[in-house]
Amino acid sequence: MRLSRLWNGRWNSIRNKIFISTIIFLIIPFILTFNWMNKTLENVIERKIGSSAQESLYLVNLNIGLFLEDMLRSSVDIATNSSITKLLKEPESYTRYEKLRLNDTVLNRLYSSYFTNTYVTLFDLEGRWLSTSYLPEQLHEQYVGAEWYKEMLNKPYQQKWMFNYNERLYMDRKPIVTLVKTITDLPSARNIGMVVFSVSEMDLRRYLGGLSGEVYLVDQEGIVVSSLTKSMVGKSLSNESYIHSVQTGVNGQEIFKKNGEKWIVNYGTVSINGWKLVQLVPYDTVFKEIYDIRHANWVVFVLILIVFLLITLSIAYQISKPLKLLRKRMRELEDRGFHSTLSVSGPQETASLIETYNRMVKEIRGLLLRVKEEYEQKEEMRFRALQAQINPHFLLNTINNIKWMAYIRNDGEVGDMLSNLGGILEGSIGRGGSLTPLRQELDYIENYVGLMRMRFHDIELVIDVPSEFMEQEVIQIMLQPAIENSLIHGIEPSGAPGRIIVSAQIEGALFLLEVSDNGVGMTEERLAEIRLGLESGESRGEGSRRIGIRNVHDRLRLQYGELYGIRIFSELGQGTKVQYVLPVHRVSREDKP
C-alpha cells in the first residue's frame, strides 16, 4: 500500500517514468533494435530475391501459358473443321479409307512448334472413336464411362484439362497433358462429339529448365504435372505444408520449414487452367551473407544504446519542467469553469500547447451554446407538431360523434356517409410516416368509394388482391387519385354503371398494383400527352394544378428510385388501366401502424 502511494505520488511523473523506464528496459530496446535491423535487412534482400525470382517465374509461366493456349487453339481448329463436324453428324457417309485420310490430313497434323508429339482422339455421341494413336479398349472405357465425360456431353462448349500419368495412357505409356473439349454444333448449340488433344509431358518440362531449385507444375488436386525432377512427376504435394497457400493464392512468395530447414517458395498461376508453377529454393544458400553481417552490428548497437541513454535523460528533464507549469495553469482554468483562458508563456512547445488549449476552450463554449439552442428549437418544433395534430384529431372525433347520433336517429345513409368520411380523414392524418400496408390503403379506398356513391350511385368496386399481398408496403393515399380520375373522367362521361377493379401480382422483384375501369378511355394523343408529362417531370393539361397521378408518380420515384412509378394504358371506349410499379417489400412489425 505504501509503495502504491509512493508510485502514484512523487514517482508518477514524466521525468521519473522516462528515467526508470530507460534504466529497466535498456536491454529490451537493444534486442528489439538489433532484431529489427536484421529483419529489415533480411526483408530487403528477400524482396530483391523475390522480385528477381518472380520475374523468372513470370517468364516461365508465360511460356507455359502459350504452350497450353496452342493446345486449346489446336483443339478449336479440329472442333471447327467442317470435315470433322460432318463426320460426327453423318458417320455413315464416310468410308473407312476416307476416315483414315481425314485422320492423316486433320488429326495427325503438327499444329504447333511447341509440340514434339501429339495424341488426338475423336469421339462421337455413340462412343465411336478416331485417333492418331491406337486406343486400347481399356482407355476407351475410361473415357466414355467416366461421369465427367457424360456430364460434358450434356452441356455445350465444355472443356477440361487433365494430367495422365498412370491412367488413360496410349500404347507408348508416356505421361501426357490432355485437353478434353466438346465439339458443339453452332446452329443447334448441341454437342455432336468430343476431341481429346494430348501432348507429351516432356514438351512442358523443357520450359522449366530456366529456374533454379526444385520446380513443379501442379494441377488443382496437388498432383505434379511436370518437374525437372523426373521422379516427382505424378506425385502428390497435398501433404506439403506450403501447398494450401499455393493453391489458394494467385502468385507470391512464402518461407516455410521442411525437415528442419527453411525454404523459400515462389509460385504463380497459369491463367488458362489455374495450374500452379512452384519453385523451391533453400533459404540458407540465399541468406548466408546476412549471418556474417549480424556479427559486425554489435559494436554499432552498443554505441547507439549509450547515446540513447544520455539523450533520454536530458530530454526527460527538459520536458517535465515546462509541463508541470502548464498542468498547474490548466487546473486553475478548470476551476473557473472554462470561462477564461490561459496566458501564453514559456518555451515554444509549451506556448503552442497553451494556444491550442485556449482555442479548444472557445470551441467547447461555442458547442455548448449551439447544443442548448438546438435542443430548445427541437422542443419548440415538437410542441408545434403536437399542436398541429390537435385540430384533425378533434375533427375526426367530432365526425364520429355526429355519425353515431345519425345512427341513433335511424338515419343510416347519413351515418354511412359520415363513417366513410371518418375513415378517409383517419387515413389522411397518417400514423407512422408516409408508408403503409396495402391492407390499410384498400380500407381507405373502400371508404372513399363508399362516400363517392352519394354522387355516383351505380359504382361497383372489386378488390381482387390475394390475402398474402395485404402486407405489401405502399405509399399512403396513392390509389385515391386514380380512383377519382376513373370516376370523373372515365365513368361519369359514359353514363353507364361503373366498375372499378383493383388487382395485384408479382413479376420477379416487382409488385404490380393495377386500377382499371370500364369508362370511356382516352385517345392515343391524350394518352401520349399524359405519359410525356409523367416522364418529363412537367404537369400539363387541365389537371396540372391539382395533386394527382403526377404527384404519386414523383413520390414513388423519390421513395424507391427511377425504376418504379406509374404506367398508364388506355384505349378509346375500352376503359383505362393505371399500373403502380413498386419493389416487393412487406411491412415489418415495427413499421405497422
Automatic annotation (TrEMBL):
Keyword field: Cell membrane, Kinase, Membrane, Phosphoprotein, Transferase, Transmembrane, Transmembrane helix
UniProt xrefs under Pfam families: dCache_1, HAMP, HATPase_c, His_kinase
Species this protein is from: Paenibacillus terricola
Protein name per Swiss-Prot or TrEMBL: Sensor histidine kinase
Transmembrane segments: 18-37, 298-320
Kinase listed as a keyword: yes
Listed InterPro entries: Bact_2-comp_sensor_kinase, dCache_1, HAMP_dom, HATPase_C_sf, HATPase_dom, Sig_transdc_His_kin_internal
Subcellular localization, as worded in the UniProt entry: Cell membrane
Membrane topology annotation: Multi-pass membrane protein
Domain of life according to the entry: Bacteria
Record-annotated HAMP domain positions: 317-369
Molecular function via GO: kinase activity
